[in-house]
Amino acid sequence: MARPQPPRPQGVPRLPRDAEIPDAVLATLSSHYPLTVIRGPRGYGKTSALLQWFDISPDRPQTVYAALTMESNFGDGFWSEVAVALTVAGLPDGGDDARTAVTEFLRTHPMPLLLVIDDMHEAGLHEDPGAIDDELVDLVKHNDQLYVVVAGRTLRPIETTGTLSVDAAVIDPDDLRLTGDGVFRLARRLGAELTKDEAQQVAVDLGGWPSAIRAGLVRSSGDGAPATIDRDVVEHYVAAMVRDLRFEKVRAFLLRTAIPEEFDLEIAREIVPEGNTARLLRNVLMAGLIYERETVAGPRYSYAPAIRSALVRMVRERHPELEIEVHHALMRYAERRQLPAQVLSHAARAGEWERALDVLDHDWDRLLVEEPLLLGEVARMFPAPLVAENARLRVAVDYLDGDVVPRDGRHRRRGPDSPALYAEVLRQHADLRDRTTPSGHDGQDVQMVLLQWGVASALHGELDIALYAFSQARAVALLDGAGKQTAVFGTTGLALVHAIQGEPRTALRWLAELELEPGQNNGILGASASVARALASVDAAGEDANETVAALPERHHRDELWALAVFVRAHHAVLAGSRDDIVAVTNELRAAVRYLRRGSRAEALLTETLVEALLAAGMADVAHQVVARVEPHQLVRVSQAKLALHEHAYDEVVRHASRVLDSRALTQRYSMECRVLLAAAFHATRQAGRAAEAFDTAVSLAQQTGQRRPFVLMGRHAFVALAASDGDVLRLWPGPHRAEPPATESRGFSALTSRELEILEALADHPGPVGIAQALGLSANTVKTQLRSVYRKLDVSNRAEALAAARRQG
Prior knowledge:
Rossmann fold, Arc Repressor Mutant, subunit A, 5% strand, DNA binding, transcription regulation
């Protein structure tokens, strides 16, 4: 026979019985700890949890329930309210000293008694809450028949120090929050149509706040609409909670800290000028109203999305001046921290348009690359007359949005600032404008901003965005009847970026459209065009590569364009130069890297070709040192793959090359190099199918882009083997245009016998005569004799130099 269910204790409120209470909360209450503390903000289901526990707990002892009121804000009032509740358990009614009567009764009560005190945050609020808490803990310690459960909204001594004195359990806001599954079950009971994914989203948006969720779900189920949650009901619920707060400082803290998306203690002190900010933050955090997130810079705090939305709406409807005041404070904070994007954002939101324009003027290029989406968003806040007057604002409004700028959340490092390069672009552009258009011509101003965006993006390695900016600058110039002369800037930028990306055919096509006047050849335009033409020619292993590289101008400024010219010369030397040429260029490359900002695109390009040159010169140890110095390592992952191939670490080749191919910033240059490296690694490990697949992809890229140079990375032997006598593919080999070392009748590769060639090939896989002898079935002495002959004929002195000479000959 089922045991009869004990009735609910007297005095409990009438609440809906369909509340969703987490099972873990009910299990904790059913464990009957001597002391149980339930803490959570209003509407977190504290009382509902108690009532549901009363209904499902047949074995609980005699239960007394006391719901405190504001009378308990003083000590005498607290003991009086508890005394009234205890009369049902036998405490005599009456008496002037309620405290003495209650404590004596609870200390000596001989039978199990469960005392539940709800709204504990009211106890001793205006006197000494710690004295009340200490007295309750002492009673529990001295009477093993007494069980106490307290539920309230704030952190109290009974939770912090009391739980150290007696066996206790704490149910905090994290325990009371509804999860996605809990929201789904509640919605089913209320008749609201929610999928599990929608239920999870509701839980996230509302921070698991039980009553707020239930209020929204009740409304959505009542009108029959398929909406997941009624936002208006939720916002009214939160507003009511804020209005009911008794302390103005707490209310001000909530409203002010909801304006930024997240904050830390320092920011909170900046925007909440009154009260003990640290204590307010702790209390709000302990009440479960905000989330804490650990970062490398320390804890950060934020509200659940829908809760923050409700608080911000309340600020805008009832205290609009508060939002402006907070943004002013945040703007000053960002100025001290030298964070121009945040200064711009808060200045615009505070209506400080002059300050926002100052930031645009001073930090335009940095904002373009580091915070383009924010820049576009803020530009759309400006009044229309200001946008119409400012070319930068018009560019931000028209071009900076999610369709152009990726929303992938990539971390954007601070790239190079190149004042000399910007000044040169500005000077030559201004000269052309003065000769073709009236001063202050609107279209030319917009074009200049777009060109600056293209230059900044290219310097920061955002090549796709640079292409977009240069193409838009060219289009604006061509649409402007007076801007055809300045369209050459956009065309030159397109050619240079395509060349950097490893698309020589496209770069040369843009260069073919370029018509530079004599005066333009000597400036930034001529230098950029020369670098683009030389780089495209070297990548394509063109017959004019020697000529175009020799024509590269010498720049006086040690800027990124000068670094690109150094890269092109080194790129060509590794492909077609002698060993002396390669050794010389490695010194030039190492010197050039010192002029560049760490982590820039130019540094990566120079480092890549420096590693390749060092390997070609037989200096693998130095190449290792160069790669180890670069941070972050993913900038030179292709170099790591080249180094691994040189050392026959084929698994490492595959690992590094595959990581590059998975990168979101992959260019055609790196894509083809990685395919060639993979083909070489798979060929060396006898994985014919995978080698053919990688090689075919590389061939396809070569035919699409015009690149031929990367094939030299795999060596002529592997290339010929994978080309399989296909004449069209064999013609892609870049070797015919490479310089051959002087040959005599008895020296050079032509003088090597077939046995010596076989030993030289085996030397690539074995470090010494013993390994070669075992591989070829010869004696070690015979191999030594043959190696001496190989070194003599090739005019080298060791294995590294012999292999370098062999690579240069394909």
